[in-house]
Structures are given as structure tokens and as C-alpha cells.
DNA sequence: CTATTTTGTTCGCTTTCTTGATTAATTAAT
DNA sequence: ATTAATTAATCAAGAAAGCGAACAAAATAG
């Protein structure tokens, strides 16, 4: 039965919270709206909108912005009093736990980062210690900024590996060396019972992009992230789609080469991960550099600074033919996998993060061509590609989005209700 | 904006319909429930349940079945009065428009078929004529059975090809030779304004299986249908998932052979359809039969009666090695595609319909092995395979399910409201 | 300066669910 | 056999929410 929304009864107070959320989401999507516009949008009466808005204004979440500018469109009648969401009325904390890095950020209601900090952590740091560092840094950041628990909607955690969001447990994270870490419980305890939402980091990124990205909200979005492995977070109608066993979006193990592919760490052969992840690209690049010790690639790898992967991309951009060809081949394989993703999931947009964002310009031509060619009919041409709206902050913003999502969309009893 | 459920305001009367639906869905899923059990399940008060049930009883949709049997579990207290859905209180019409066949059926509220009829239609029959035949036959069936429009919840149509459910239009059906046929409008006009829901036939089958199949309701289900082409219908939480451009589940065009595959009618090469559809299997079988004119396959094809594809399967069952090997190879390719489906969509169950159901026993061993081997981690082992609960009636039952779904789950103003 | 239009508010009404008391029907214990 | 305990279902009173109608506010059009 799980928590079947259809079997759960409704009542008047739920109607009220739903309507409050409708108003808030409307004000989240549009920069400003009048009460009349809200009434038209929601189908509620003017009376109801007046009453609910009064409460939101009282809470400081909404503010009257002043009267509408006179415009040629509006002809007669009393001008609208425009309402605006006050982003800094509440805050969310986002925590992104990556492979060697942890990042914590405070964001406002629009998921705009107020402050953030990053630090490296040792590769085999015990989970408990990592969590203690996080909670310590988070609470000192909150104290420093003078954010009280009353102003916080919650804390979201995006962690790599297999995560159980119901339990708030990081079930298995090989890259971190963790197993069954009760992240939500530990963090909530350390932070005085703050609501904590935990999910996989790529899924969090996908949610952040879908809800708070620059483009309009998509009906279906895939956030494809490549680094050590390759995975996708899927969002449908503003909600994370996890599949029946939290396995949705595991495209890193799409079989791209049916016969005689390279062995993958998952046990199979010919997986996408064996063809396009960061380590694999680096390995190929090294081989190419050895073949041409005086080539652009080899010299760039020797002389330039910065992350190795960036140097490989730089060499391709500088005109190294063999590197370019190697990357185009990778892009073709990624394209085959994404065409399959398109045929199954049919997203409106695909966001490419991680290495794919770093080498976006290099991958795109071949990728777009492969996808529009291999996907069914014109599905491949309809899908839009983009880089993450929040760049390398996609992780924390996504994590914060987990908390913001339950504030705006899910949670029936939120901060507002407490005060009444 | 489309029809964003979050932006739509709610009110008390919607609460009431929601609660009525919660009760109905509960009674749909369990053979019988007491008022007290319904109260616990929905979280509503006993009083509310009493009132709402009274209405449903008054409408004849629910009936008191008698007092609970004394059991060791129940110890003290007044025994529960068990309530039961009356399936024959309302009916739905399902229309399945296949390649050379149309089937119409009347079902009750549990999607059990009361009566059905099939007929063949000429391959290039004009759409208008086909629709006229359908509505004529449907209304004469209704008249014959004495079903009034008051007792009907609606009519569902499952049609092959690309369908726009919002508009009720069959946009493009190459197998039928149709383009932009306004099925919903034509049928509603001919049937006195009966609510008509139109969708793709495989999606309808998936819905029928998910809502009314023998197994418990899955969180995510894929119905894979193979005949001329191969496609999948996806259902998530009891709702059809269509993707952003109605392209979700087009697995027939999964690229299985990356380099040098056979050309597909979609323009690409190496698509799943070029490897496992009915025509392709028949073609391979003919080639095998020519190689061994005295083999089991060749003689079976010559002598036996029935559809050719069945004779191919019969030959394999009778021990024809080369046919068996050929089918196993097909199963392997299907397995690769389904493993990718599992990695992206992660369904709880995969239902195999069409040719895959006919040759289920022959495909399964290789298929299961390939999927559990190639899908990520243990995702492939977790997924359950099955044949359609409604066999060759999956099409009509699914079509009826389209109408029943809007009765049970969607439609805010349903037959009930009219009488109050 | 008046009519018109659109926005926003106040008041009384209707609808629905809930709480708490009450009745009903059974088992367990004295 | 009688009483207490327990669970199921109903009744009566009350609370909460949204709605429609009337009204006030603030602009334009003529």
C-alpha cells in the first residue's frame, strides 16, 4: 500500500494548505502576480485569495510590491496590486556529499545561494565523522548569518551512491566506503530536529534544475551526470522519479556494445560507463599522448595546469585531431545511450553535467546528431540539451531543492501552520 | 502551464469527491472492507465514512455483504459489517482498434467482460466508416443488454499509432492508413455525449494490466507488445506515463546493434524491431525452412493449420534445433533492450504481450538470463515477468480501463454527482 | 463629471469534516 | 447470568473553509 495518495482521505485543512501552496508556487513561477491573476490561475474566488494572501503577507513570505505599471494592454479599471514572493523570508540548507568534497550552502526560497563553503574530506573518512563535520559547519554558518530555526524550511542532502529517501539512509556508497549510514537521523539529531530530506546527488541535481533552473519547468527532465560513473536523475512533473527499486536512471549500465565490449565494474561488458566516464577518457588520452609524444595533447598534458580532464579538452580545442576523434567517438556512444533514454523516457530536456558539461562544446555536435538520428521519429530532435543552470553548484542547489520541494509542494504541515 | 494540478485551487466539494474515490478505490483493491477498516485506511473519521458509504449504497455501487466471519484474529467487540463493491452497478465500453481487427466489449466496474464481439475490417477502410461500424455495433450491444446511458461510466478507445489523448485524436496510424482522425468527437457525437477517452492501444493494455490485472497494483509497470512493431506502455502509480511528446516507451527503436545492423522502417539501423518483430521472425523461419526442407520446421509450416507464427513456435517446441536457436538469439536481443528499459525506467513488472506472449516459454529462459545479467546490479533479478492477465483480450480490457480510470481516479464530476 | 471597468474586501451562507456522546453487538471475566 | 471491556457504527453539535452578492476603491473613456 505504501503511501497511496488516492487512498488517503482529505479534509478542509488540507484544502487550505493546498491552496496556500498553489499561491506560493504561482508566485515562485512568475516574478509578480496580482490577487486577481492568482484567482484566475487557481480558479479560486477573489475572497479566498484575499484571505490566504493576507496570511502569507502576515508571515512575511509575500509582500505587496506596488501597483502595476500602466501599460497599453491594461485599459480601464482599478490597477492591480502586484504581489511578490519574499525569497529571503525562509531559508534552506543544501549539503552535497561528493567523492572527495563536501559542500554546504544556505539558499533562499528561490534556491539562490546566500553563502556556501566547500572542503575536501579524506577518502575513507568514517561516515560519523563526516556527518559531524557537516553539521558543525552548517550550524556555525547559520549562527554566523543569524538564521534561526524558525526561518529554516529544512535541510536537503544529496549523497552519491544508493540512497533510501524514505528512511533517510545512504544504503551503499562505494565511492565513499559507506554502508547503511542513517544520514537523516544523525543530522536531524545534531540540528535540533530540523526536517532533513536525503536523496541521491544526481537525482537532487535533476530536481534543482527542474524546479529552479533558468528554463521553464519541464514536464519530464533528465539530468545526466558523468564523472567516475555515469547516471541520470529523472524528474516528472516536478517530482523525482525513482522507479520501483530506486533504480531508475542507471544509464551508466546501458549496454552500448552488445558483443565483445570492455568489462565493467558492474560485472557486465559493453556498458556505457566503460566508454565515456572521466577515468576512461583520461586513460585513452594517455594512450594517445604516448603515441604522439610531441603532439598537442602530450605537450598540453605535460605543461598546462589544472585538472587533467580539462587539459584533455583543452588539447582538443587547440586542434589535436586524434583527441578530437577520440572524444567524438565517446560522444557517439553517449548518443546511443541517450537515444535509448529518449525512446524510453522521452524527456523534454536533457541536462548534461560533470565531464559532459566541461566538454560540452566538444561532445555536442556528434551527440546531437546521434540522438536525433537514432531516437524514434522526431523525438530526438525535440529534446533540448543544456548545461546545468547552476554549474558546479548543481549539487548543493539540488540538495537545497530537496528541502524546498517539500516546503512548496509536499509537506502538509509546514512552518506556516505552526504559527496559527 | 498545461493543467498543473498544483496551481489548481481546491474546495470542499472536491474534498468530498476525493474521499468518495478513496473509498471506491479501497473497495476496488480489496474484496470487502468494513466502515471501520475504511476509516483506518483513509484516515477519515468514522462519521464521514458512514455518511459517504450511505451515499454509495444509495447509488447501488456499494452493498452490505453481511457480518464478518468470526475469526481467531478478531477477539472482542461488535463484528464488522463488510462492504463490497457492486461491479455490475456501472459499465464501461472498451474499443480496441487493431491492424485488421476491431473488438468491442462491455465490462463491469472490475473490468470483467460482460460481452464482446470482434470483426475484421478491410485494411484501407476509411476512418469514418470504421468509426460508424464501431458506434453502431456498440450501441446495438448496449441496447441488447439493456444498459442505459445512466449506467455507463464511459467509453475507452485503444488505437494503434500515435494518439493525442488530450484532443482525443488519432494523429497518425500508418498500419490503419489514418491521419488526424478525431475519434473522441465522432464517437461522442454518435453515442449521445458519452464520455470518450482515447489512447494508444499498448498504453491502454498497460493501464488495464496495472489497474485490473491479477497481481497487486505495481508502482511502475511496462507492458511490452510485439507484433508488426514493438512498443511498450508505461504506467506509474496507476497512471499512464506518456513522456513530454507522447514518445515514452518507444523501445522498438532501441538501438541494439550499434554498427552494421539491418535497416529499420524508421530510417535507422540496428533497431530492436528489425530483430524481433513477427514479420522478422517469420522471414527468418522461412529461410531456415528452405535450408532444411525435410526438417521439423519446414514440415510444420507446410502441414499444420493456424497462424504461421504459431507454427514456427510449435516447430521449436517440437524440438527443431535451428528454430530454437533462432528464437533464442531473438530473445537475447529483446533482453538487451529490456535491460536498458529496466535501467532507465526500473519497473516492478514487465508484461510481455503479442508474439512474446505466444512464444513466452521459448523466449523466457534466454530473456530472463540476459536481463538479469545485463541490467544494473540486481535490478534485472528484481523485475517480474508475466504474460497479460487478460490474454488476447488485453486490448479491449485496457480500452475499458481508460474509461474506468477516469471514473475511479480522475474525473471530478462523475455520474454520482449528477443525482444529488 | 458621469458611466464603465476591473480590483479587492466584507458579510452571510453553504458544505463538509470532526469531536464527543450514544447505541449496538460481541467476547471475557466474575 | 451478569457485568465489564471492546470494537463498530450513528447522531448531534460545532468548527473551518470557500463562495456569491453586495460594496468600496481606483483607474479610463467619453
Q: Can you describe this structure?
A:
Two copies of one chain form a homodimer. By secondary structure, chain A is of the alpha/beta class. Chain A is built from 16 helices and 16 strands. Chain A has helices at residues 12-29, 35-42, 46-59, 127-145, 183-190, 201-212, 273-276, 278-291, 296-303, 308-317, 321-345, 355-358, 360-374, 379-382, 394-410, 415-418, and strands at residues 33-34, 62-67, 81-85, 91-97, 101-108, 113-120, 152-159, 162-164, 169-173, 178-181, 196-200, 220-226, 230-236, 239-241, 349-354, 384-386. In chain A, the strands form four sheets. In chain A, strands 6-5-4-7-11 form a five-stranded mixed sheet. In chain A, strands 14-13-12-15-16 form a five-stranded mixed sheet. A three-stranded antiparallel sheet of chain A has the order 1-3-2. In chain A, strand 9 (169-173) and strand 10 form a beta hairpin. The longest helix of chain A is centred in the C-terminal third of the chain and has 25 residues, at 321-345. The radius of gyration of chain A is 24 Å and the shape is globular. Chains A and B meet through helix 1, strand 13 and helix 11 of A and helix 1, strand 13 and helix 11 of B. The first copy, chain A, binds a DNA duplex (30 and 30 nucleotides) through residues 9-13, 15-16, 19, 34-36, 44-51, 67, 70, 74-81.
Low-confidence stretches of chain A: 412-420
Pair with the most extensive interface?
A-B, 69 and 68 residues
Q: Compute the gyration radius of chain A: what is it?
A: 24 Å
Let me know the average pLDDT of chain A. 93
General form of chain A? globular
The termini of chain A sit apart by 33 Å
Q: Biggest β-sheet of chain A: count, sense, barrel?
A: 5 strands, mixed
- Per DSSP, what share of the residues of chain A sits in E-state strands of 2 or more residues? 15-25%
> Helicity range of the residues of chain A?
40-55%
The helix-and-strand class of chain A reads alpha/beta
The assembly state of the depicted protein chains is homodimer
Number of strands of chain A: 16
Tally the helices of chain A. Answer: 16
Amino acid at each position: 500500500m505504501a503511501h497511496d495518495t488516492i487512498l488517503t482521505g482529505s479534509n478542509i485543512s488540507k484544502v487550505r494548505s493546498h491552496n496556500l501552496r498553489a499561491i506560493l508556487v504561482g508566485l515562485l513561477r512568475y516574478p509578480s502576480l496580482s490577487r486577481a491573476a492568482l484567482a484566475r490561475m487557481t480558479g479560486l474566488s477573489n475572497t479566498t485569495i484575499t484571505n490566504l494572501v493576507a496570511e502569507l503577507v502576515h508571515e512575511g513570505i509575500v509582500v505587496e510590491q506596488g501597483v502595476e505599471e500602466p501599460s497599453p494592454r491594461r485599459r480601464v479599471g482599478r490597477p492591480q496590486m502586484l504581489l511578490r514572493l519574499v525569497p529571503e523570508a525562509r531559508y534552506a540548507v543544501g549539503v552535497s556529499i561528493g567523492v572527495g568534497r563536501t559542500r554546504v550552502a544556505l539558499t533562499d526560497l528561490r534556491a539562490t545561494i546566500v553563502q556556501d563553503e566547500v572542503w575536501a574530506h579524506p577518502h575513507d573518512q568514517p561516515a560519523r565523522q563526516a556527518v559531524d563535520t557537516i553539521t558543525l559547519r552548517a550550524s556555525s554558518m547559520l549562527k554566523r548569518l543569524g538564521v534561526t530555526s524558525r526561518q529554516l524550511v529544512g535541510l536537503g542532502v544529496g549523497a552519491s551512491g544508493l540512497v533510501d529517501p524514505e528512511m533517510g539512509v545512504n544504503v551503499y556508497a562505494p565511492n565513499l566506503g559507506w554502508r547503511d549510514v542513517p544520514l537523516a537521523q544523525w543530522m536531524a539529531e545534531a540540528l535540533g530536529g530540523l526536517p532533513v530530506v536525503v536523496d541521491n546527488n544526481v537525482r537532487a541535481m535533476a530536481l534543482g534544475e527542474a524546479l529552479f533552473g533558468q528554463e521553464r519547468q519541464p514536464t519530464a527532465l533528465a539530468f545526466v551526470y558523468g564523472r567516475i560513473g555515469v547516471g541520470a536523475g529523472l524528474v516528472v512533473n516536478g517530482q523525482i522519479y525513482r522507479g520501483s527499486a530506486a533504480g531508475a536512471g542507471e544509464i551508466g549500465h546501458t549496454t552500448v556494445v552488445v558483443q565483445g565490449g570492455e568489462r565493467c565494474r558492474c560485472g557486465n561488458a559493453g556498458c556505457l560507463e566503460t566508454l565515456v566516464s572521466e577515468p576512461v577518457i583520461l586513460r585513452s588520452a594517455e594512450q594517445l599522448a604516448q603515441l604522439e609524444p610531441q603532439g598537442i595533447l602530450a605537450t598540453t598534458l605535460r605543461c598546462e595546469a589544472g585538472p587533467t580532464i580539462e587539459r584533455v579538452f583543452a588539447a582538443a580545442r587547440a586542434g589535436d585531431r586524434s583527441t578530437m576523434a577520440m572524444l567524438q567517438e565517446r560522444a557517439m556512444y553517449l548518443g546511443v545511450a541517450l537515444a535509448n533514454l529518449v525512446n524510453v523516457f522521452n524527456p523534454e530536456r536533457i541536462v548534461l553535467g560533470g565531464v559532459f558539461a566541461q566538454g560540452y562544446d566538444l561532445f555536442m555536435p556528434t551527440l546531437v546528431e546521434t540522438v536525433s538520428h537514432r531516437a524514434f521519429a522526431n523525438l530526438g530532435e525535440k529534446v533540448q540539451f543544456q548545461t546545468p543552470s547552476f554549474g558546479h553548484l548543481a549539487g548543493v542547489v539540488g540538495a537545497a531543492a530537496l528541502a524546498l520541494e517539500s516546503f512548496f509542494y509536499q509537506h502538509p504541515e509546514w512552518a506556516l501552520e505552526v504559527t496559527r
